[in-house]
Predict the 3D structure of the following.
Amino acid sequence: MDTHDVSTLKRTLSAPDVLERVRQWLLEQAGRTLLQFAYFLCAALNLRNPDGRYRDHTCARALEDLHRDGLLDLQGSLRWEPPREKRPCRPRCLPEPVPLPKGVPDSVEKIGGIWIVRVSTDLELLTWNTAVENEHDVGAKVPPGHALRLLFYSGHGLLACMCFSPPADALGLRDNWIGFTPEQRDALARKIIISNSRLLIRAEECRNLASKVISMGEDFARKVFKDEWGVDACLIETFVNPEKHDGTNYKAAGYELIGMTEGRDDNGENVRKDGETPVPPKMLFMKVLVPDFRERFGIGQPREEDIPPGWSLEGPLGISESLDGDLFMQEFAGCPLGDRRRNGRLATTAGLFHANPARTVCGAARAEATGGRAAMKGAYRIFESGQAFGMADVMQGDSDRTCRRMMFHDHVYVSLDRTHLDFTPKPRTCRGMGVVGRKQTGTASKGVGIFSAWVTTVGDVPLGILRSDCEITHFKKKGDPRPGDVPPEKRKSFIWIRFVRWVNGIARWMPGTKVTILCDRESDFGGLLTEIVLLPSVEVVVRAKVDRAVEGEGRRRQTLFRLMARKEESGYGTFMKGSVVLASIKGFLKRLHALRDCGLIKLDDPLWTKLFGEPHQWQRAPGAVERGAT
C-alpha cells in the first residue's frame, strides 16, 4: 500500500471498513503502547515504506490525529496519554516596566543627543524584551537567525528600540518586485537584504524622532551586518499591520509601499497556532539603499504585470466611504491630466452636468445660481485640452476607485457590451466618425462605438465603469479579405478577448473578490473557449438565447448549443440551454430609463443617485428622439 505521509495514511485508516477493523483490534490489543499497536497495525494492513520497512511512527501520528478528531478512543484501550499542550515561549523580562522618557521636547532638533546601545549584556536584553513585549503590538518575539537589537537613549531616557534580522526566505510580492528568479533568490536574498523586524518609538509626540531613529539604526545595522555576517545590504524590508498603523514613519524615512501580503506566518499557514485566529495581511515596505543593485548582481528588471497597481495599495473602498466629501473631486483626482488645476476643472464640469443632465453646456451654466459663467468657461477649456489627454486619462481616476470598490465585495459582475452613439444629425460638427448601422432606406448612420466594462454587485448595485474604449468601424467594401483570412487580433470581435484578458489582470490583485465576466453572443466564442483555460482569476459567462450554425453544412452542420454541450463534457464549463443566463447592461447612458423599468439596476441606491441624479430626471421627455447621446 502506497502511503508516503501522515495525511495519506490518515485517509486510509479513516475509511469506514478499515476504521471498523481498527476499533475491533483496539479491543483485542488493549494494554499495549501506542507504538506497539501501530507496529501491529502496519503488519496487519501491510503499511510499508518504499524500502519495505513498516511505517509504525507515521501510523502512530495518524492514530493520534484520528483520536483528536473523535474517530478513535486510544486513551481507553492503550497505555497512552495525549500530549500536553506546549506553553507559549515567553521572553525573559524585568519584573517592572521600563520607565517612559521624561521631558521629551516636541521636536527631535531640541534633543541634546541620541546614542545607540547594542544589546549585548543580560540587563540590556531584559530591558529590550520588557519594553518591546509590553509596548509593541507584536511583542518581543524575534525571527530566527542572527538578530541585532538596538536601544536608543538620550538624556530623557529610553526613546526607542529596534531590531534587524535576516529577511524572509521566500516572499512572492518582494521577489516579483525585485525581479528575482528562484535561483537568484536562494543565492542572494540573505546576502543583500536585511529586515527591519521591530520598531518601537516611546515618545511619539516628538516630531521627526521616528525618521531620525530609523536612519541611525539603518546606518548602524549596515555596518554590523557587513563586518560580522558578510551581508552587503542593498535593500531593507519591513512589515506593517494596517489595522494598527499606516506606515507614515517608514514613508517619511524613504520606504516605498510595495503591496499587501497574503496573510501567512513563518510556516506558510494563514492561521495562528491555535488554529482559529487568522494571520492578518500586512503592508510590505522596501527601502533601496543601493540604486544600481540589479545591475551589480545581474538581476533582471521586474515584469510589468508583477508590479501591483497603485489602487491595490490603497485597499478596499466601501460605498459609504465613496459618498463622503466632494464625490467628483475624489473620483477625478487620480486622473493623469498633467496639471492639478485640470483635475479640479474636470470635477467642476462633471458636477455641472450632474446637476443638469439634459441641458447643453450653456444651458447648464445658466441654470447655476452662482459661478455659472466661470463653470462654462472651464468646461470649454477642458474640451479644448483634448490633445493633451485622452478618454483613458479622464476615466483613470474613476476606474481606480471602481477597482477599490470591487475589492470591498466578495463577488462582483463585470458586464461587457458595445453601445453605438449616433451623431448623424450633426455631420458637420463631428469628425472622424464611423458607420454604426443602416436605416431602412439604406442610408448609413454615422457615429462612434463605445465598448465598456460595467461593474455591479450580485444585488445589482452599480459600482462604476471599469473601462471604456472607442471604436470606429466601417462597412465592408468589395475586395476586403474574408473574415477567415483576417488575423484574430485584427477582427472586430477580438475586443471581447482583449477586455477579458484585461479584467483578468485586474482581478489577480483582488484575491478576496470573485469576478464573473458577462459576455454577449456577439463575442468570439472560439477565442473565449481558449482563453477560459488561461484565466485563473475570473470566470466567464456568455449569454445566448437563440441557437445558430457555427460550422459545417447539411447533416454535418454544427450548432452553437450542440458545440457547447460537447465543450461542457470536456470540462470547459457549464452550459444552460435555451435561456438568458444574465442580461448584459447595454446603452448605459442612452437607455437608463429602460434599464430601470426592466429591474436591471436600482436607481434608489445612494451612490447611484449622487452620481447620476434622481430617477425623475431621466424620464423620457415628450417627443424626444432616442437617437444620440444623453
